[in-house]
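User: Watch each token:
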Amino acid sequence: MYPFRFGKKRAYLIPYLILLPALLFYCIFHLFPSLVTVIFSFTNITRTGYRPVEFIGLDNFIEFFRPATFFEKGVALKNSFLFTFLVVFIQTGLGLLFAILLNKKWKTRSFFRATLFLPVIMGITVNALIWKLMFYPMGGPVSSLLKSVFDISSLFFRDPQTAFMWIIFLQIWTYTGFTCVIFLAGLQGIPNEYYEAAKVEGADGWYQFRFITFPLIAQALTVNVLLAVIGALRTYDTMLVTTNGLYNTSTMAFYMFRLAFMSEGGSGRAGGRLGFASSVATILFVFIFLVALITQKFLRKREVEL
């Protein structure tokens, strides 16, 4: 009946054998490339391979922090901070708000749940292309609407003053549904008896949220904030599709991508500096790890206090 039989002494191997395919997949496509990236960060390897690869030690990291060449990286770092803060704050707040609304019993809530999660299924590339067409300055639907109703014209993704804000809007639009689903799962796990007891005690909606809902979804909040922080710091495809990193929209993740695959100058004509890009990726990994660690420690502490 069963192709493989294990005695009682070897039964402990069954869980490991079940996990083996996933573990191999993780090692081949995640762990091994990450280790190779760290190794490449200490070399001068290029995408075209027109020169021999040499071990150069910490030269890439020293070049990254050299004051004379730090302006572009400083702008990218500042944009990464701003992008992460606004995306995490707004996306988490909207996700919680929509989750509370969609957790109520009303007839069309299934339709709105599916609609809210649709951008997550479509992916950032499709969403970016759609909104790029919507915001097209020369006759796009949004541009035409603003011109005809409010007599306002804008270049949207091509305006250095507003392009970065529209990218933040696009990121929030795409992933708010995912945040909402996690919050919704947390809300549905709260027993209704708690709210009934609170009503008997005379607690209104705000007190119910403050003393029942919010403490009991603290774990969902931790998960959402961590995922939003990591996702925002890693985002480069939104900038790639909408602005190609122009108009003051470059972040650390996009700067790393440009170095590796779009050449040092961004023109795409020469080979990318994989070694230097790997050092930027290593620095970005350490930065994301530290931010995630601090965020998790703070939020876990809040869970205990609540």
About this structure: Residues 71-102 form the longest helix (32 residues). The chain has one domain: 41-305.
